[in-house]
Design goal:
Elements lengths: L2 H17 L11 H12 L5 H8 L3 H13 L3 E5 L7 E5 L1 H21 L5 H17 L2
Antiparallel strand pairs: 1-2
Amino acid sequence: MDDVERVERAMIAIRRRQTRRALAEDGVPGGQSFDVLDVIEAESEPTVSAIAAALAVDQPRASKLVAAAVADGLVMRVADQTDGRRSVLVLTDRGHELLDRVHERRRAAFDTAMNGWSPSERTEFARLLARFVEAMP
């Protein structure tokens, strides 16, 4: 098995674990509903259109996901000050708290997976993984 095939297999294993939400916490919204929060956190001006594009779903599906996050008290719609026809999505305090908990849980899982790695191995892995992700189409 060559290196590229090993990377492919590893990426498939990661995707399968992500699909099963292996790092998800009981009682925490999951699936695409939670992915909305990740997108809002990453975007400079998150909108329903940005959610649709990031999650590769159509506009009606993105609207439903956003509506669910609003109903759960995780997101607010705020009128765009430059275009009154548009709403920008903003995390509520509850949304920020939830994301903080999830980040802590993910980081703890990654820390456990790298248990026994030297600091230089962790640094090199982080550097190479970031480079790999940036080069992906």
